[in-house]
Write a structure and sequence with these properties.
globular, mainly alpha
């Protein structure tokens, strides 16, 4: 559930980066709970790092 939500948000939305704290602030109002928000923000950070690695 977390991975699917993170990948959908990452592909459809702009502004996410490799920075966990920045992603967490972007998701502040959209996530139902703190733990879900943190997990999704972490997964988005991983996806951003993976995307950067494949572009190099």
């Amino acid at each position: 559930m977390i991975r699917k939500a993170a990948s959908e948000l990452f592909t459809t939305s702009e502004g996410f980066s490799e920075d966990f704290d920045k992603n967490k602030k972007i998701l502040k109002d959209t996530m139902p709970s703190k733990s879900v928000r943190n997990k999704v923000a972490g997964q988005i950070a991983r996806l951003a790092k993976q995307k950067r690695q494949t572009e190099i």
